[in-house]
Automatic annotation (TrEMBL):
It is an enzyme of class 1 (oxidoreductase). PROSITE patterns: D_2_HYDROXYACID_DH_1 (PS00065). This is 2-hydroxyacid dehydrogenase. Residues 34-317 form the D-isomer specific 2-hydroxyacid dehydrogenase catalytic domain.
Length: 323
């Protein structure tokens, strides 16, 4: 029996590509930069492509999905987020979409914790000082940050990543609060305090960590009004999606001192970022590192292949269907 054809839109970890090559005829993207919609559709039309293994940087808009060949049965995204795929268009065309939940929760929570620590302890400024040969020696008031112990961490979106972060933050002696669609028994049992109302949640916390999905429903969730509801000197970090933050409002609050510091791993329109961010010293900037560990990226790739195998090799339902 001939192998199904799989389009790989990026370079994936070696073990993932090796397994894909073993079980499929693979069409690679040698450039390892995201395909444009036209290039993706052209590559998918170059053979009887049945599956697409894509990543968060690929834009699968309605028009791109409409120009895919009818042989495409499944799009497996190497991400938990699916805001880069027009899910309604995929559903209308009968193309399944799958994602990679669970396996990246700890790695992403680690990056949230790292951003919180780096923002609170001024790690970015400190590193730039030493690397730039500007450090003239220890001083009693140099680069003073704030201690996390006994501070209140507010988790916006208590999914798997938020729950992993709550476990880590408790190790630092932080009190955990959360705002979610509904209270979660496991979070309550672990002592996290649920806030049904976003204004009460924002007023109660010292550090806000954002874990909500992208898309129109959450665009600019953290706007100027909500930033003002945070305490003077609060810290904000975001490892969810950049579109959920009003960049101009965040930059202003960091500059005028309402916020002490912030840390961002995700950006609207990345890799381009809001121009004011480059020159804001109390802002830590990471290049979308959330899931970037060797173990996690292998696990994400294998999860994509598990979904592709179910649909294309065994003709079964996928394990992690989004549509
Ligand atoms: C995800 O999985 O959604 C991460 O942001 C990586 O794209």
């Amino acid at each position: 029996m001939s192998k199904p054809t799989l389009l790989l839109t990026r370079r994936f970890p070696d073990a993932v590509e090796a397994r894909a090559q073993r079980d499929y005829i693979t069409i690679p993207n040698p450039a390892d930069t995201p395909f444009s919609g036209e290039a993706l559709a052209a590559a998918a039309n170059d053979g009887e492509v049945e599956g697409i293994l894509c990543a968060a940087g690929d834009a699968l808009s309605a028009s791109t999905i409409a120009s895919l060949p009818s042989s495409v049965k499944i799009i497996a995204t190497f991400s938990v987020g699916t805001d880069h795929i027009d899910l309604a268009a995929a559903r209308d065309r009968g193309v399944m979409v799958t994602n990679t939940p669970d396996v990246l929760s700890v790695a992403t929570a680690e990056i949230a914790m790292l951003l919180i620590l780096t923002a609170a302890r001024r790690g970015g400024e400190a590193e730039r000082l030493v690397r730039g040969r500007q450090w003239s020696g220890w001083a009693p008031t140099q680069l003073m940050g704030v201690t996390l112990e006994n501070k209140k961490l507010g988790i916006l979106g208590m999914g798997r990543i938020g729950q992993a972060l709550a476990r880590m933050a408790r190790g630092f002696g932080m009190e955990v609060h959360y705002h979610n669609r509904r209270p979660l028994p496991q979070a309550e049992e672990a002592g996290a305090m649920f806030h049904a109302d976003d204004a009460g949640f924002l007023a109660a916390i010292d550090v806000l960590s954002m874990h909500i999905p992208g898309g129109e429903a959450t665009r600019n969730w953290l706007n100027a009004d909500r930033i003002q509801q945070l305490r003077q000197g609060a810290i904000v970090v975001n490892t969810g999606r950049g579109t959920t933050v009003d960049d101009a409002a965040l930059c202003k609050a960091l500059t005028d001192g309402h916020l002490r510091a912030a840390g961002l791993d995700v950006f609207a329109g990345e890799p381009d970022i809001y121009p004011g961010y480059h020159s804001t010293p109390n802002l830590v900037l990471f290049p979308h590192l959330g899931s970037a560990t060797i173990e996690t990226r292998d696990a994400m790739g294998f999860r994509c292949l598990d979904n592709l195998d179910a649909v294309l090799l065994r003709h079964e339902a996928p394990l992690h269907a989004v549509t």
